[in-house]
């Protein structure tokens, strides 16, 4: 009798250990898979730097997974370039410590990044005293100080631009937009494509391209606005309207290409220096803007003035930063 | 007659080549593993290295166990390497010399450096997946190193997890698994030495360069080119370097750890 109870307790112990092991293995796998999935979503949104961090998190516990490795290899150069651009942007805005951290992130991804290595020395030479505390932190805490904050909603790193008018967010359309905004990005993308409405055309006018979107987008508003006169550094890009091209050569040989729009009045834009893509801008909303560095190293602020999702047309403006 | 003249010319040519001072890498393969030198050399060449790459053959060819347990800690083997380093240094006092090794080959490198005469130094040392003891006191070694010592470490190294005796006979886990640890005594000499010792723990971003945390994968040419070369071919320490002994909080150095997902707050994602 006693022997049987001992056997039973041994059996129970083995079962417990096995199930604990399974839970640990499964838990690790789940964590890795979840991070990988989050990386995929970030990559779809065009946020290579966040996607890279998630892929790295997934691979940290499971380095043998070839998908993780492939993803890291694919996104490494883009993510490193993103961080070096962020570093320059941060320095231009006077955020020296952020600039240093961004530069370190670039080097974490690509330790021999020539621009990263040169730039961090430059930062050291220019702002050595301001950086001493963060460098001490790096020595004691290591890469923990370089962790990226991921906001609940995908970040666009935009800054408010008061003079640009906002599209009205009232009525059923706005409610639908809010409901969709609360959905995951992947679902939002699908639903925005499924919910295609009949096409409207931009008014055919003989005026210069920047004037055109005003009248058309006015149909989305409660109060139509008056047509404006053409301003320098204003552009209209369209993917569906034949009057406009989806790619334009702007100042300093910077090429702006419209990639996509969404019914949340967001625009996806790529910036090129010749054939080389230098920056991806994703989900930039009407009324928001983003700093950019032109091929001739001048800072400009790109602002979205109008978006018409039906004709996939965007009016934007470049102002010196 | 012709063949004799050719051989003589070849011999003289080789002799002359030895005399020309160039930057030199001395490399020691791992025990029973004879194919990593090509990868390391290729990585260094791709990073712009134009000097000599010397693969110092130390194997007994009696198998990995013999090499690991006996040959790697042989004084004769270490003296042989030390002699070659000394000759190269005397031949070109200003030319950089780098000493590198894989696994048990790192024990040969460390023993050889300890045997170098006073005044003879190498510039930098790189230990890939070292199977030397993590508790080994590197102070005598670092007195023969002008620059820095880098040691790759990985918790995913299956071979180092399995070995029971370190290649140099020392205690504790192998350095390639957990990194070198600082000795308890931290006088000026030790502090000076360990302020130039840098453990390079595996992180996921190294997957881009072919090192998956495995034992021999640390010698992949991409990893050497993108991660090791920028460190040893630069006069200043790499911005990412975190030496074991730091002037800040110098007396309470915690063991180096990489940030893990578990230690990061949920709203952040670490760069591994």
Please provide a written account of the structure.
The complex is a heterodimer of chains A (321) and B (272). With 321 residues, chain A is of the alpha+beta class. Chain A is built from 8 helices and 10 strands. Chain A has helices spanning 2-44, 48-61, 66-92, 96-109, 114-141, 171-181, 185-194, 212-217; strands spanning 148-149, 159-160, 234-238, 247-249, 254-262, 266-273, 276-285, 288-293, 299-308, 313-320. In chain A, strands 2-8-9-10-3 form a 5-stranded antiparallel β-sheet. Chain A has a 4-stranded antiparallel β-sheet with strand order 4-5-6-7, covered by helices on one side. In chain A, a hairpin with a 2-residue loop joins strand 6 and strand 7. Chain A is globular and about 85 Å long. Chain A starts with a helix and ends with a strand. With 272 residues, chain B is of the alpha/beta class. Chain B is globular, with a radius of gyration of 19 Å. The N and C termini of chain B lie far apart (64 Å). In chain B, 47% of the residues are buried. Strand 1 of chain A pairs antiparallel with strand 7 of chain B, so a sheet runs across the interface.
Report the largest inter-chain contact. Answer: A-B, 45 and 40 residues
Count of the separate structural domains of chain A = 2
Q: Order of strands across the widest beta sheet of chain B?
A: 2-1-3-4-5-6
When the domains of chain B are counted, the total is 1
Class based on secondary structure composition and strand pairing of chain B: alpha/beta
Structural class determined from secondary elements of chain A: alpha+beta
- Count every beta strand of chain B, where a strand is a DSSP E run of 2 or more residues: 7
Beta content of chain B: 5-15%
The helix fraction of chain B, in percent, is: 25-40%
User: Under the CATH scheme, which architecture of chain B would be assigned?
Assistant: 3-Layer(aba) Sandwich
Give the fraction of residues assigned to helices of chain A. 40-55%
Report on the biggest sheet of chain A: 5 strands, antiparallel
Strand percentage of chain A lies at: 15-25%
Termini separation of chain A (Å)?
A: 86 Å
Order of helices and strands of chain A: HHHHHEEHHHEEEEEEEE
Q: Tell me the span between the first and last alpha carbons of chain B.
A: 64 Å
Average pLDDT level of chain A: 73
